[in-house]
Design goal:
single chain; alpha/beta; Oxidized Rhodanese, domain 1; five-stranded parallel beta sheet; two-stranded antiparallel ribbon; 14% strand
């Protein structure tokens, strides 16, 4: 490897780290502005940039059925926050999360519309996870004027990687 290629690699790594730091700082600022009781909130495009850079772990907190029928992010981890029509909270959520990520990892939580993942982020933070962020808009986004998801924000609407069974 030549000296110039090492210098290029170092410059690229430094630029990537600066980008990661900027994303996390914006997410933390938003968290403070919204008075969140967890580290912060990131839009889907920023979440993907963090995952792609290897700077964060993406954890999908939706049900098995949602991931299977609606879709999921390839390579994402899975820890269910709540189950069933009545959305009964998974009493093992924190223990299961602890088996998938370390308490000092940057963790991005994703659900359908960013509501359950916000609750899960608060619970994880109370349990000692230090850098937990909610992915804004969720996987499917908000309801549109026809009360349908998938067209108004959300992971899928940005053409980010996802797959379906």
């Amino acid at each position: 490897m030549s000296i110039s290629s090492v210098a290029e690699d170092t410059a690229v790594a430094a630029a990537e780290q600066t980008h990661v730091s900027a994303i996390l700082e914006r997410a933390q600022q938003l968290g403070r502005a919204l008075a969140l009781d967890f580290a912060g909130a990131v839009p889907p495009l920023d979440a993907w940039a963090l995952v792609k850079a290897g700077a964060a772990k993406l954890v999908d907190v939706r049900t098995v059925e949602e991931r299977s029928y609606v879709g999921s992010v390839p390579g994402s981890l899975h820890v269910i926050w709540a189950t069933g029509i009545s959305q009964n909270r998974n009493p093992r959520f924190v223990r299961e999360l602890d088996t998938k990520v370390r308490k000092d990892d940057v963790v991005l939580l994703l659900c359908r519309s960013a509501k359950r993942s916000a609750d899960a982020a608060a619970a994880a933070t109370r349990a000692g996870f230090q850098h937990v962020y909610n992915v804004l808009e969720g996987f499917e986004g908000d309801l549109d004027e026809r009360r349908q998801r998938g067209r108004l924000g959300g992971w899928r609407s940005y053409d980010l990687p996802w797959e379906q069974d």
